[in-house]
Amino acid sequence: MTETIKTGQMQMIPINLIDVLNPRERNKRVFEEIVTNIQTIGLKKPITVTPRPATDGTDRYLLVCGEGRMKAFHALGEATIPALVIEVSDENAFIMSLTENIARRHYRPLKLLAGIQQLHEQGYDKKVIAQKTGLCVEYVHGILTLLMKGEERLLVAVGKGKIPLNAALSIVGAGDDDQAIQAALQEAYETGKLRGKQLIQARRVIERRQTLGPSVAKGTPRKAQDVTTASLVRVYQKEVDRQKLVVKKAQLTQQRLLFVVSALRELFADENFSTLLRAEGLDSLPKYLAERVLSGGRTI
To answer: What residues form the membrane-spanning segments (predicted)?
Structure first.
């Protein structure tokens, strides 16, 4: 499925002759910034199009890259826009458009990840998708796994960077068993897959997933179950496991603080080091540390 892309030529193309292959919603503030930049300094990079004659034989073009720039030009009242005209197939045009979107920070993650699924459905295997999009094979495999299982809620969290992909896969691998999910979370914490805010975010995503289902668009609250002794035990055990994680995190933080306090005490005992800090204007400490490092009282 490889294709040699011919070197394109720069042309002034009428905007009304350009069709958008992969339209996407755009943040209003970001779009206004694009319009302002083009109005102030002009178009720094031309859009990319490929010829696609209409059924009546008239010349038309398919937009490959530069939807925001084209819309900004249109908003400024321009009828034509500088464009690099290349010869590519519909599939390669889609891939080029998807690749540009992947490079953007503000692209909607679920729509972007669905694009990876579309490439897969068109017959591209994980390795080829990775090569064409610049993603690693493991990432593509993980995304396709979540997509095939309908885990939209986890996909959005991964796409926004709230939780890492390997942690999301561990959650999915645990199924719907609450204890297995908690065990997966604990293992992810202990192995360093989830740290700090990511652990909190993962818990929130799991709670929404359990309540609203894995789908974002069609999630509906699950029917409440009758309170039984077994359900109360499960809730209690869940809270116990959560508290254990909190305690473990607190103990780790305490150990690190003790190490920092001990190290700083030894450093400040060295007069040469203290003199150097004063000379560089770095002789102050946060109050919390100063009370423990510079006083003779207890450290914690």
So the answer is: none
